[in-house]
Amino acid sequence: MVKAKIGSLTCILCLCWMAILSAEVKVSTELNTAIISENQPFDVYVKVFHDEAMQVDHKSFKLDGDPIEVDLINVAQQSSVTIVNGRRTEERYVIETFRFIAEGRPSGRYVLPILTLKVDGKEYATDEVTFEILAADQNGELRLEAIIDGVTPFYPGQKARFIYRIYSKNKVEITLEDLPLLKAEGFRLLGERKLRNLTRGGRNVLEVIQEVQAIKPGRYRFGSSAIEGFAYQETVFSRRRYLQPRLRAVAEPVSIEVASFPEAGKPPEFNGALGTYALYARLVGEREVQVGDKLEVEVRVSGSGEWETVQLPVLQQVRNFSGNFRLSDLPPIGQMKGEEKVFMVELRPLSDAVTEIPAIPFASFDPVSQKYNRQQTAPISITVQKGKALPPVAPSSDQQKVQEERSLAVQAKQDSEVPPPIQISGNERLRAADLRRQRPSSLWPTVLLLAGAMLLQVLWKAKRSRMQKKEPPPIRAVDLLQQARQQRADRNQSLALLEQALWLSLQESDPVVHRESGMDALGGVGLQGAYRELLRTLSAQRFAGDSEENLDTLLGKAEELIQRSKG
């Protein structure tokens, strides 16, 4: 009897506890102080634990009474199973993770105010959170250099290399970077960034290289560059143990001037070519032509310099070309063939008085000597003949008679085809039969019209079906992985594709995962933990100055994770 009462009491208590638990809502705030930098915005995460049937009001979030905007970055589900007296009860819960961005602050201790939100119309609040922003240490363990590599002064069209060198004693995970040279505002970016890992004096050196091209004259100033990060050591299980304090390195501002081309001694045909070159031209085809025939001249440019700036002058503006030749409105496009740039010029002589193709001038500017160089091709002699028109043939007497008879017949036919004068007749009166509905004499027009409409519909559906079949299938993580394998010759490109494949695989398995959330939003254990660790490894290959890990090994790890996420 006592045992029965105790069992009943236990059952009642369990049911009450489950009811309380199912109605309970827990709200908490989290922030990773280890990666918060001074005076930089940082992420604050809000986790809401509630029953599956409850709804969180996304617009009800307030921080210290002021409304804030939040982003939902993750939704996870949990379940709880309880068995009492053989009866199984399951409760389902949801953990929603939100994020908002807090304003940056100087180093010091701070208190994150109370945050409130509503779940099913009821308001809940978090506790205050105390946190500290540590000042980064500039003790020389991490050092940054900003370098401009190129011939100065710069001129429009000239190329240069903007380089950052990052020196570190230990391996470093970069958490903040402000590198204005890599954005190169006012310059044209040429290709992707290139990375080089070196070792100098027992230190790891990472070079980040961006090739640029000057566009227009002016003075360009790039502000201070800065990086922050944590030195770390790897455990036997390839886990990272971060070392305090956070490291910071700053490079001084850099200025660069792009000068205008000097006006003194500038040839009229100069159009921006940089370097020193030689010019050669030859006629392709026969030298004897008739007026209006096409001539082709091959112009070869050899030398050294910025080949993208090498173009022929506008020949319509060159002496002895205008008025003697008809030229294409489109300028000739050069093609690189070995160490030369080749242009094909088409022109047509307008008169038989033309005896030669004039010299083609070309001018370039040497940024080293800061002088103009002028070259021109040798004239090419040609022979232009008048067009040979056939003389008219005098008709005989018999032919004249036949021609006269044909002319008379044609004239008579034209006269017979003249329409008579238009006569306007009076209006006819309507009859009673005209006001009644007339039945068609035959149903064939209606049948043909319906058949034509049905045929058009069938053809339209067939075309639509073909267009749908031609739509490319959406790209998948395995497709990006395959592209990464194919790009192994370009390590940086392969690593970038591999990183995209991992994030896409995460999103395929969990649609709420977004790359913008960053690696810190991923879980630290299980499948997400494995993804997070591999993504960190890829990041280390980029910034930490690690020795390059075998690319095939990284591809194999990524393929294994993608297969696990499908299973």
Q: Tell me, rounded to a whole number, the average pLDDT.
A: 80
Count up the helices.
8
Secondary-structure class = alpha+beta
Annotated CATH topology of the largest domain: Immunoglobulin-like
| Outline | flat
Q: How far is it from the N-terminal to the C-terminal residue, by CA?
A: 52 Å
The appropriate CATH architecture of the largest domain is Sandwich
Q: CATH class of the largest domain, anyone? A: Mainly Beta
* Rg value: 41 Å
Flag low-confidence runs: 1-22, 388-399, 422-426
Helix content: 10-25%
- Could you say how many structural domains there are in total? 4
> How many beta-strand segments?
31
Give the biggest sheet. 5 strands, antiparallel
Strand content: 35-45%
Oligomer: single chain
Q: Could you please describe the fold and organization of this structure?
A:
With 567 residues, the protein is α+β, with helices and mostly antiparallel strands. It folds into 4 domains: 22-133, Immunoglobulin-like (Sandwich), CATH 2.60.40; 142-258, Immunoglobulin-like, CATH 2.60.40; 274-385, Immunoglobulins (Immunoglobulin-like), CATH 2.60.40; 477-566, no CATH class. The protein has helices spanning 2-23, 180-183, 397-416, 444-470, 477-486, 491-509, 526-543, 551-566; strands at 26-30, 42-51, 62-63, 66-67, 71-84, 87-102, 108-112, 115-119, 122-125, 129-133, 142-149, 159-168, 172-178, 187-200, 203-214, 218-222, 225-234, 240-242, 247-251, 254-258, 274-284, 288-290, 295-306, 325-327, 335-337, 340-349, 356-357, 361-366, 371-376, 380-381, 383-385. The strands form 10 sheets. Strands 21, 23, 24, 25 and 26 form a 5-stranded antiparallel sheet that branches. A 4-stranded antiparallel sheet has the order 1-2-6-5. Strands 4-3-8-9 form a 4-stranded antiparallel sheet, with no helix packed on it. Helix 5 (477-486) packs antiparallel against helix 8 (551-566). Mean pLDDT is 80; it is low at 1-22, 388-399 and 422-426.
